[in-house]
Write a structure and sequence with these properties.
GO terms for molecular function: D-malate dehydrogenase (decarboxylating) (NAD+) activity; magnesium ion binding; NAD binding. Its EC number is 1.1.1.83. It comes from Amycolatopsis suaedae. The strands form two sheets. Strands 2-1-3-12-11-4-5-10-8-9 form a ten-stranded mixed beta sheet, sandwiched between helices. A two-stranded antiparallel ribbon has the order 6-7. The chain has eleven helices and twelve strands. The protein has two domains: 189 residues, 3-Layer(aba) Sandwich (Isopropylmalate Dehydrogenase), CATH 3.40.718; 139 residues, Isopropylmalate Dehydrogenase, CATH 3.40.718.10. By secondary structure, it is an alpha/beta fold. The longest helix is centred in the first third of the chain and has 18 residues. It is globular, with a radius of gyration of 20 Å. The structure holds nicotinamide-adenine-dinucleotide, 3-isopropylmalic acid and manganese (II) ion. Manganese (II) ion (MN) binds next to α8.
């Protein structure tokens, strides 16, 4: 029997409600595939910050470095500034463990209506650059409180950082439907995104079997709404990938269903699996958070750990349950709860 050690970081808000669902599914499907999970749970969160002054301990990364993977719920709570909670936990993990690919698949499931008329088949993956780009600490605030007050924020795009994520995206497109779209804004941003475009053009020549195009982010958002079915792999910078993944998830039925894998493709460090959504303070504590994103994360983690059949079973069970009109949470138009959906899914995978 294979045993994997998983670091669980439930975090804040609905992160604490959806992570137990993912864990229960892992245990159930693992039992039938000869896979066991040992969990170490970490209370790293805004509650910890308010209590102890830090989202995680100073040696936090060392405490999870030896785990096979990290499963994270969500971070963020009203009362703690978002840049404090995210730069105190989520972003150091992504960067410290060189999780430079953020993989965000989305599809329209049968039985789950897209809010868009005629959305048809949507089956795409956003490959988001995850450790540089617009998310940077370089910059500053000047002249606070004066009429000349200003903020400056530098974006960082490096050849090595962009091309390694392009490699991942082109290779993924070659394994899927052979179609890649690059998100850009080189008509308005004069240094970084023209550089991004040059690198995409250079890298595309290495992948002659992948058809590709480049779209400005504004037009791309419109096309995502008007013809979402045309996309296969979309590669984008950190910020563009962030925005596109919520948009794509909403087009496919709701952001509660979308998973993310923060991957360190070299496997030098643990990869981290977390739903695309946040801590949803507006519904936290009500027991109605949609657990599909977190459960799909569990499937992505199974795949990453070398159990593709178990992963496919979990994804298949989500599809079966939705197609059968089983329980669903209010964000999907149902009256179900986190627990009722999870119970129904456990019956399919146990
Ligand atoms: P959010 O994703 O938390 O919520 C946006 C909307 O979607 C809300 O109306 C919420 O109720 C709904 N929603 C989200 N997930 C849902 C689910 N599983 N089931 C049903 N409805 C769901 O985004 P936000 O409001 O911008 O952010 C709230 C907090 O979460 C902030 O502090 C933000 O910084 C943080 N955040 C954290 C992460 C993360 O830890 N990975 C990701 C995004 C946002
Ligand atoms: C996500 C989130 C985070 C991001 C925030 C909370 C920093 O929106 O994982 O999509 O932008 O990366
Ligand atoms: Mn986001």
């Amino acid at each position: 029997m294979t045993t994997h050690r998983i670091a669980l970081i439930p975090g804040d808000g609905i992160g604490r409600e959806v992570l137990p669902a993912a864990r229960a599914v892992l245990d159930a499907v693992g039992a039938r595939h000869g896979v066991r999970f040992g969990y170490d749970e970490f209370d790293w969160s805004c509650a910890r910050y308010l209590d102890q002054g830090a989202m995680m301990p100073a040696d936090g990364l060392d405490r999870v470095r030896g785990h096979d993977a990290i499963l994270l719920g969500a971070v963020g709570e009203p009362g703690v500034p978002d840049h404090v909670s995210l730069w105190g936990l989520l972003i150091p993990l992504r960067r410290g463990f060189a999780q430079y690919v953020n993989l965000r698949p989305i599809r329209v499931f049968e039985g789950l209506d897209s809010p868009l008329r005629g959305a048809g088949t949507v089956d795409l993956v956003v490959v988001r650059e995850n450790v540089e780009g617009e998310y940077s600490e370089i910059g500053g605030r000047l002249n606070r409180g004066f009429p000349t007050e200003m903020a400056v924020q530098e974006a960082v795009f490096t050849r090595a950082g962009v091309t390694r994520v392009l490699d991942y995206a082109f290779e993924l497109a070659a394994r899927r439907r052979g179609r890649l779209t690059s998100a850009t804004k080189s008509n308005g941003i004069v240094h970084t995104l023209p550089f991004w475009d040059e690198l995409v053009t250079e890298w595309a020549a290495r992948y002659p079997d992948v058809g590709w195009d480049s779209e400005h982010i504004d037009a791309l958002c419109a096309k995502m709404v008007l013809e979402p079915g045309r996309f296969d792999v979309i590669v984008g910078s950190n910020l563009f990938g962030d925005i596109l993944s919520d948009l794509a998830a909403a087009v496919a039925g709701g952001i509660g269903i979308a998973p993310a894998a923060n991957l360190n493709p070299e496997r030098e460090f643990p990869s981290m699996f977390e739903p695309v959504h946040g801590s949803a303070p507006d519904i936290a504590g009500k027991g109605v958070a949609n657990p599909i994103g977190a459960i799909w994360c569990a499937a992505m983690m199974l795949d990453h750990l070398g159990h593709p059949e178990a992963a496919a079973e979990v994804e298949g069970a989500i599809a079966t349950l939705l197609a059968a009109g089983g329980p669903r949470t209010p964000d999907l138009g149902g009256t179900g709860t986190t627990v009722s959906f999870t119970r129904a899914l456990l019956e399919l995978v146990s």
